Amino acid sequence: MADAVTGAAEFADRDVIRRLLNDSKTWAFVGLGDNPEREVHNQARLLQQRGKRIFPVHPSGDTVLGEPGHASLADLPERVDVVGVYRRSEHAGAVVDEAIAAGAKAVWLPLDVIDVAAARRARDAGLDVVMDRCPAVEWALRR
């Protein structure tokens, strides 16, 4: 676990975090379904309230927070700035690979979602990467 924590720290650059929160316009939230009890729902709502356009990505394809859902990142109608990876760590790598293939500009893996190898693949593909950070907490600290 210590290696994962050390590796996650590699993807906590304050400038990248600030840029993604301040300059991004579109966020896809993988794992965002119609359950308002899930943390992904809270994070998507927060960023939506802060002016970000959100794209729910969930196999159900449900409309969430007033936005039409999509079954996968490949189904999105446009390239997004950031893909939030709200899946367990063991599934994060596949989502990161989909984000790379979909032409996303960045991936954000929230607290306790750690896949250092996937994060490095994304970075090597030219994406900005944030890992093991909470958008709500970082929003409060971004200035």
What is the number of helical segments per DSSP (H or I, 4+ residues)? 6
Overall 3D shape: globular
Measure the end-to-end span. Answer: 31 Å
Count of DSSP strands: 5
Strand percentage lies at 15-25%
Pfam families: CoA_binding_2
Domain CoA-binding: 20-113
Organism: Actinomadura yumaensis
Protein name: CoA-binding protein
Account of the 3D structure:
This protein is an alpha/beta fold and 143 residues long. It is built from six helices and five strands. The protein has helices spanning 2-9, 14-23, 39-49, 89-101, 116-124, 135-141, and strands spanning 26-30, 53-57, 82-85, 106-109, 128-131. Strand 4, helix 5 and strand 5 (128-131) form a beta-alpha-beta unit. Helix 4 (89-101) runs parallel beside helix 5 (116-124). The radius of gyration is 14 Å and the shape is globular. It starts with a helix and ends with a helix. Pfam families: CoA_binding_2.
